Amino acid sequence: MIHRPRRLRRTAALRAAVREHRVHLDSLIQPLFVVERDRDAGPISSMPGIARQTVDQTVAECRELASLGINAVLLFGIPAHKDAVGSSNYAPDGVVQRAIRAIKAALPETTVVADLCSCEYTDHGHCGIVDANGDVKNDESVALLVKTALTYAACGVDVIAPSDMMDGRIEALRSALDAHGYENVALMAYSAKYASAYYGPFREAAGSAPAFGDRRTYQMDPPNAREALREIALDIEEGADIVMVKPGLPYLDIVREARDAFDVPIAVYNVSGEYSMLMAAIANGWMDGERAIDETLACFVRAGADIVITYFAKDYARRHK
Length: 321
Fold this sequence. Notes:
By secondary structure, the chain is an alpha/beta fold. It has one domain (22-320): Alpha-Beta Barrel (TIM Barrel), CATH 3.20.20. Helix content is 39%, strand content 17%. The chain is built from eleven helices and twelve strands. It has helices spanning 12-17, 55-68, 95-106, 138-154, 169-179, 200-206, 226-238, 252-261, 272-283, 289-303, 313-320; strands at 28-35, 42-43, 51-53, 72-78, 111-116, 129-130, 136-137, 159-162, 186-193, 242-246, 266-270, 307-310. It has an eight-stranded parallel beta barrel with strand order 1-4-5-8-9-10-11-12, surrounded by eight helices. It is globular, with a radius of gyration of 20 Å.
């Protein structure tokens, strides 16, 4: 007998009927950059189509996203003031705190995820407290995260996403949130976050490049895979509700291994460098943009991700609502 798999590829309808994996709008999260000062708003040169927005503009953006079927956003704050301890990060009236309140007041059904890190708020650009030798202090940095997380929870955030990669922060955050009556606030841990070159455009967008050194002493070494599974297991044990792999495209093997090893929701972050590379190729006419974007998002789902954080969410929703 001659086997003819092509029979089911003959028409668009047949291909759709037997498609094994689909990207659902409910699984997409759009990252947003929120500024405290109006003058800091505007397009991000290294991320075509993405802009920093004021709180009011962010609410309007969330309205448009909701109308397209995107009901989850990930907030990054751009403060007016930076110092050694990131004090703007835990200010009750900080930019992310105000954005959370405004979005939940206008669109209570939108899931608001707040990235939790200090790098955008410190004058040295590292993800925590730095000692006299330039080393990032783990436990002191975790205490700072806890302080900030409680202000996010008080504003009505749905999910807190610690992205710092400090040891033990998930347990500390879960314990503190529960002790203060915020047991319904979920934690989406950046569990396998690699020290990647693919974050370059984000550093411009968020103004978070380190003033010295790099983040390789706390973010993961790119060649490591088994370590990623250990990090994920630790975060689950400490109380993470969702675990994340970041970046996405160069680490699809990690997404697949995590999916096979753990029965928890898995997120993947299609990061700024991945977005910018693809947008550059599209702008130069080297790729069919719509097909390339759709294929990229489908590969995350095929690898095993339940949630895809992507700057392409809005574009995808416009075409697939």
